[in-house]
Amino acid sequence: MADIGEQAMEVDKQPIKDQQQAPAARTYELPWVEKYRPQFVRDVVGNVDAVARLQVIAEEGNMPNIILSGPPGTGKTTSILAVARQLLGPSLKDAVLELNASDDRGIDVVRNKIKMFAQKKVTLPPGRHKIVILDEADSMTSGAQQALRRTMEIYSNTTRFALACNTSTKVIEPIQSRCAIVRFTKVSDADILARLQVVIAKEGLSTTKDGLEAIIFTADGDMRQALNNLQATHTGFGDITADAVFKVCDQPHPVLVQKMLADCASANLGEAYKGMKALCDMGYSAIDIITTVYRVARNAEGMTEFLKLEFMREIGFTHMRIGDGVNSRLQMSGMLAKLCKLALASSSG
Length: 349
Fold this sequence. Notes:
Helix content: 55-70%
Subcellular location: Nucleus
Number of strands: 5
CATH superfamily of the largest domain: P-loop containing nucleotide triphosphate hydrolases
Distance between the termini: 104 Å
Strand order of the largest sheet: 2-3-4-1-5
CATH architecture of the largest domain: 3-Layer(aba) Sandwich
Family: Belongs to the activator 1 small subunits family.
Organism: Tetradesmus obliquus
Order of helices and strands: HHHEHHEHEHEHEHHHHHHHHH
Strand content: 5-15%
CATH class of the largest domain: Alpha Beta
GO molecular function, one term: ATP binding
Subunit structure: Heterotetramer of subunits RFC2, RFC3, RFC4 and RFC5 that can form a complex with RFC1.
CATH topology of the largest domain: Rossmann fold
Number of helices: 17
């Protein structure tokens, strides 16, 4: 009886042992955005002038309070973390306080957490300062920003502030006047392509020319988006082809939009409406369609410069209305009619 009991216990134990081993065998891949994040300022892609200014700060060590302003995915946070890493070296953990938009950054946090950090004694190399990094600073409340400006002055001898934001105008003027503003712009297509090719070579991916063009088109100057789209397409489909990219990113195919604009340029409203209706029936929202229409029109070829400018103006007005919430199919139909009217006027003129 004892033997049977022991055997039963061993049988019961077996699955538990397997359960404990299973998670260890499974490995999760790091997102490529983190895996290939530049560690030094000189490795940041694009925005040559802004990166050059930050490189000088990283080498000389005299860091002012700075605002890094620009669209998402252009390297603002990466740049300031790289500067902090180069300036502080091993003291990075103790001498940097990073607060993101996801953290609570109300007036109490500025009065307590940031003030406590500014008062904290940290042994640093000569000429170096503690750094407070406030990401998405434009989403801080006005009260918190007002409390911050005094803190910036009082502790300027020991602590410097770096604020990253999408639009610097949402940061109150007293803080703007206390900071040097470094402006980032969208990363150029050539820079994105060069970086993608480095990642592709390291990961050993199979790509096509139109697949890479599709990734660059969907990214629209956002390096983070480009790497995420590349990884998502590789995970979902393996090979990087244009169709796979547009399926993963779920954006209207620019070839369909191009045909729709070509029909407008030849004043063929019926065909243009059919193209727009087909895109709507695929489930794309008005904002998705109008964004792609704008980007395709901006790069359109075979259209006179005057007509392209007139098209861009009408598309811009429609984009504004859809952005305000008037996103019915009627708006899109009206835009197509106006584009056809412009094409007729241009050909008769």
